[in-house]
Amino acid sequence: MAGVVVREDGRLLAIRRADNGTWELPGGILELSETPEAGVAREVLEETGIHVEVDELTGVYKNLNRGIVALVFRCKPAGGTERTSSESTAVSWLTPNEVSERMSEVFAVRLLDALDDNGPHVRSHDGKRLIPAG
């Protein structure tokens, strides 16, 4: 479960993970009693300090090696102040070009997919590279 938070100027909210140093979008695992939308809002707030309004599902991404399916929702910022957490060592608003430079392909595509109106996208990957549909 993850949120692509899109600011009015088109910049995207990203975190540098504390456990492995990679840049990703904020997200995590749903609690049993929460809806996907509530879980996304909670995870984004916990990891970044930013409150969000959850808009729509923009993609479904499956890691074929680990059997993990991630739902990604486009969100709008609705207050708060950027801050790191125990799960993040940096929080930043990135341009789409910066997303492509800093993130691995399997994470960058999630943010970039959320910017178009052709979703929701359904993609598979091996943890490092996208795998063509077929």
TrEMBL record:
<dbReference type="GO" id="GO:0016787">
    <property type="term" value="F:hydrolase activity"/>
</dbReference>
<dbReference type="InterPro" id="IPR020476">
    <property type="entry name" value="Nudix_hydrolase"/>
</dbReference>
<comment type="similarity">
    <text>Belongs to the Nudix hydrolase family.</text>
</comment>
<dbReference type="InterPro" id="IPR015797">
    <property type="entry name" value="NUDIX_hydrolase-like_dom_sf"/>
</dbReference>
<dbReference type="InterPro" id="IPR000086">
    <property type="entry name" value="NUDIX_hydrolase_dom"/>
</dbReference>
<protein>
    <submittedName>
        <fullName>NUDIX hydrolase</fullName>
    </submittedName>
</protein>
<keyword id="KW-0378">Hydrolase</keyword>
<dbReference type="InterPro" id="IPR020084">
    <property type="entry name" value="NUDIX_hydrolase_CS"/>
</dbReference>
<dbReference type="Pfam" id="PF00293">
    <property type="entry name" value="NUDIX"/>
</dbReference>
<feature type="domain" description="Nudix hydrolase">
    <location>
        <begin position="1"/>
        <end position="116"/>
    </location>
</feature>
